[in-house]
Amino acid sequence: MKRDLVSLAEWSREEVWEVLELAAHLKRESRAGVDQRHILAGKTLAMVFQKPSLRTRVSFETGMTQLGGHAIYLGPEDIKLGKRETTEDIAIVLSRYVDGIMARVFAHEIVEELARYAAVPVINGLSDLLHPCQALGDMLTIWEKRRRLEGLTLAFIGDGNNVAHSLIHACGHLGLGFRIACPEGYEPDPAIVDWARSRGAQVEILREPEAAARGADVLYTDVWASMGEEAIAEEKRHAFSGYTIDLELIRKANPGALVMHCLPAHYGEEITYEAARSPGSVIFDQAENRMHAQKAVLALLLGLRG
After folding, report:
1. Is 230 among the domain residues?
2. What secondary structure letter does DSSP report for 179?
3. Model-wide pTM > 0.85
4. Which residues pair with 181 in a beta bridge?
């Protein structure tokens, strides 16, 4: 039976740990020059993009190459999901050609529909609701730097968006406390918060960045207006004024707190350049670990279990 990665909520704590442990192993092997091309030799991944991305495309394509497979980029003009052809038909046709599908889309329902009709594993490379691959790379980064996850506190400063949602899922599985500081009206999805709390996770919704940062082990932020939100970008800049990670806010967190951003960054808005280059910043480790975490997902879904 095929396995998809649409949402981390659909995976178990043990499965999430399996990804992190395999990712760490693959990263060590890669650094040591171990040839990993046998893992996905002869496998093909279709990469469906409605939204362009530097990190998603390069990390998945490079990961497939390192594992011995092949990735095909299908941009917005190659596949007009639901316009030129139904998502159902696209899923069925691609399943006849490839061994897996990664989709980076606007509406989360598209990933769900691809997974429903595809006969091969479907991986959510990003949707408007969730970003599970980012959260896996982030957890790998925190684990590397702190050698533990359970009991740590992650403070998210900004919009309760797709990245925040998947981080809540990851924290719920792995035992981290999650705080978000956001203006009224920009809270995370209540159903996702309830999911985490039902598993014993501590999720706090606060208004003041200083309150969220106080005693935190990780300070995390993301752009205020995501791709596709250009029409409300100015509105969000006004709403989130004061929700910036800077050196002063970092000093309110625990000593040695990690500073994280999923990139791309708008310096001077959600984070200052100085904060992004401060000693605790791990933003580029995150970017690298996206690839290692995704390699683990690919290996498990297309190879070791496929």
Report:
1. yes
2. E
3. yes
4. 157, 206
Structure tokens at 246: 């800077």
* Section 7-11 average pLDDT: 98
Type of residue found at 255: P
Name 48's bridge partners: 74, 103
Residues 121 and 172 in one domain: no
Which of 48, 40, 69, 71 shows the shortest CA–CA distance to 58? Answer: 71
Look at residue 84 and tell me whether its pLDDT is greater than 90: no
Q: Are residues 32 and 68 in the same domain?
A: yes
Residue 3 located in a structural domain? no
Q: How many CB atoms lie within 10 A of CB 65?
A: 13
Q: Which domain holds residue 12?
A: 8-131+290-304
What does the pLDDT read at residue 305? Answer: 54
Q: Could you read off the pLDDT of 207-237 as tens digits, one per residue?
A: 999 999 999 999 999 999 876 677 788 899 9
Please tell me what DSSP assigns to residue 301: I
Q: Report, as residue numbers or ranges, the catalytic residues.
A: 104, 131, 134, 222, 262, 290
CA of 3: how far to CAs of 107, 191, 298, in Å?
21, 23, 11
Do residues 143 and 236 both lie within one domain? yes
Whether 199 and 71 share a structural domain: no
103 token code pair: 């989709």
Within-domain flag for 160: yes
Sheet containing strand 218-221, edge to edge, reads 203-206, 177-181, 153-157, 218-221, 258-261
Same domain for 175 and 267, yes or no, is yes
Q: Which of 243, 241, 247, 242 has the alpha carbon at shortest distance from 259?
A: 247
Asked if residue 36 lies in contact with residue 68, where contact means CB atoms within 8 angstroms, the answer is yes
Q: Give the 3-state secondary structure of residue 143.
A: helix
The string of DSSP letters for 163-207 reads: HHHHHHHHHHHHT-EEEEE--TT-PPPHHHHHHHHHTT--EEEES
The pLDDT score that the predictor gives to residue 306 is 47
Query: Same domain, yes or no, for 84 and 185?
Result: no
